[in-house]
Amino acid sequence: MTDLVVRRLLVDLETPFARHWCGGDAFRSAFLDALSMSFPMGEQFFIDSVREGVATLPEAERERFMPMVRGFVGQEATHRRIHALFNGHLADQGYRNGWERRIAERLPRLAGTDKRHAVAITAATEHFTAILAEYLLAHPQQLAGAEPRLATLWFWHAAEESEHRSVAFDLYRAMGGNDLWRRRWFRVVTVTFLYDALRQTASNLRHDGQLWRWSTWSSGARFLFGRDGLVRRTFQPWRAYRRADFHPSQQDATRAERWLAEHSGEFRVVGEAG
Q1: Please, which pLDDT band fits residue 272 given cuts at 50, 70 and 90?
Q2: What is the SS3 assignment for the chain?
Q3: C-alpha–C-alpha distance, residues 51 and 45, integer Å
Q4: pTM (two decimals)
Q5: Is the pLDDT of residue 48 over 60?
């Protein structure tokens, strides 16, 4: 495990932005908006699950994990706040956030009372966000034409997701979680995440009057299934989670580290693990 720092993003998120802020592309804007809609509620669940999970460890193990848990919580709390601001503009534009409601209803029911299940769900979802983050950092053209402040928001979030990708996974193992349930929860998260992401994207496009336009879905097909499309480029990293010897640290973090080093003027460090 590596040290985590908490950063304050220095971009303007008070000024409203255009509906199709991602280079005028309806599909890419709607898809990224959908992801943002899931973040505040989802990240609160991650924070709660990790906090409650680490409290179940023996004292020596708990002390070992606490610096990383504090860094994880700090980063996720910052993401939650920033995306709440972003989502506020979406609400002002009339978008309805159905994904957030489904998260609030589904996750506590799925996790139950065994703290390991909540942490396993968190670890599985963190793998999803980490491979999406790596995809975005490796294919910055997907944000071509985006407002610079919003592109910075997404790249910064991506870099930090890569940075803390191992915390919930390592905590789950320390809590005695086994690989059978780790992989079972990953299957559940895969189905629900993809279903909710596409459903919310379709809802956003319907609100825009863009859902049935050929240009919308031709752009969507390129974004998802093109030569450098999201599905094609993330399938192998997605599949890797199912291996018995998998660990999130096997994912290359070079691009995330480079982005943070090259854009240090876009944020201020406000706290460090330890």
Answers
A1: low
A2: CCCCEEEEECCCCCCCCCCCCECCCHHHHHHHHHHHHHHHHHHHHHHHHHHHHHCCCCHHHHHHHHHHHHHHHHHHHHHHHHHHHHHHHHHHCCCCCHHHHHHHHHHHHHHCCCHHHHHHHHHHHHHHHHHHHHHHHHCHHHHCCECHHHHHHHHHHHHHHHHCCCHHHHHHHHCCCCHHHHHHHHHHHHHHHHHHHHHHHHHHHHHHCCCCCHHHHHHHHHHHHCCCCHHHHHHHHHHHCCCCCCCHHHCCCHHHHHHHHHCHHHEEEEEECC
A3: 10
A4: 0.95
A5: yes
Domains of the chain, CATH where assigned: 5-272 (1.10.620)
What is the amino acid identity at position 100? E
CA distance linking residue 170 with residue 62, whole number of Å: 12
- Rounded CA-CA distance 4/73 in Å is 10
The token pair at 3 is 């040290």
Predicted pLDDT at 108: 85
